[in-house]
Amino acid sequence: MVSAQVRRGGNEQTGRPGSSRRPREGHVAGYSARSLVEVAAEVFNERGYDATSMEDLSAAAGISKSSFYHHVSGKEALLRGALERAVDGLFGVLSESPAQRGSPLARLRYIVRRQVEVLATELPFVTLLLRLRGNTETERWALERRRVFDQEITAIVREAMDTGEIDDGLEPARAARLLSGTVNSLIDWYRPDRVPLPELVADVERFVFEGLRSTR
Amino acid sequence: MVSAQVRRGGNEQTGRPGSSRRPREGHVAGYSARSLVEVAAEVFNERGYDATSMEDLSAAAGISKSSFYHHVSGKEALLRGALERAVDGLFGVLSESPAQRGSPLARLRYIVRRQVEVLATELPFVTLLLRLRGNTETERWALERRRVFDQEITAIVREAMDTGEIDDGLEPARAARLLSGTVNSLIDWYRPDRVPLPELVADVERFVFEGLRSTR
DNA sequence: ACCGACCAACCGACCGTTCGGTCGGAAGAA
DNA sequence: TTCTTCCGACCGAACGGTCGGTTGGTCGGT
Lengths: 216, 216
Known about the structure:
Chain A has 216 residues and is mainly α. In chain A, 60% of the residues lie in helices and 0% in strands.
């Protein structure tokens, strides 16, 4: 397990510590394992996990590869850390009280809205989660968690169909997959600071529940 | 350049030629470059492009790594071949006459339906296309073609909003992205033979244009 | 004296790719 | 028919290079 404690969460000048050559400001940088997970998640998304070397990661963190190993136990541990953050964010939504009380449709709408918010705020981590191939044990664990999450959504969709709140012309599982697919596709184009988050949330909710066709 | 001519497009007993140990039936197998592209696309999707070794590919084709090189010029050429097939399929839809004539909404509906069909029939190739990271020149070329495709969709969405056929509450570019995102998300769960294609096409069209909410 | 941050040099494994050579059928000459 | 020549399919072995990870050590603060 990674044991380093938090000392400095980042670097104020670039947002990512020492991504360009630092002039060796002593030997005190102090990267927490957590901030390195953030760096790693970004690089994983740019290059792809397999194409990312430990040297790429350490360079992005501004230290040498061997120094990097002083802070983290290995490549897969970084992936695990990032995936855990994504999974925790997603399941956190399900455990919020508006996701557990109220009519099925209201719960579903709430989950969609919150899921968009989590996707946006935890973008690099969720992106990583949604692009997994399942090659390692860590990846398969995350894939399984995703599957459980999707099942929860499917169950709520089914309830909402039973109450007649949403159209029951589709199979619940298929409707849930289209729903999740739409929300998750945000990671392919959403970039923070380009679109106000509340506006994005409203647009996605409208698209998912009302569709594209004119209401007039 | 790949120079082998088509001799046998596949193998009737497994659907993929020689994926299990063949008892050396002479030295006549005769893989066309095309059938090897199909094998490669499947393995790329299972393992991820970067994580796939040439040995993985040759093993899937049932020949040695060095024999494999007798038929193809290299790893990236296989990727290129697969991506070209996906891109051609997608742009082919746009050039069909129902995609160019009629009201914007009718054209959009047609494109969505046909795009689902292309996704389904060319699943491995389109999957590859939609998961690119842009590390190599080939990948960047494909990404650029995708961008052009999305722009075409955006233009039609904008037209349909101008005519009032679809809701203009969303920005055209954002509506187009949600639309494409929904359709493209099929690659994450659609598997042939599980769902009749016409039914899938109808479901996706309905979801995209009518949304989930009840029509009653 | 000790400790945490840091790094150059290194390791075995595996990568994509090349190459020399074998095998068996097709084709032409006898 | 038999002999000879040729060719495409095929493979084992090895190449240069890069990978994830380790080692042995320096340096500055306390």
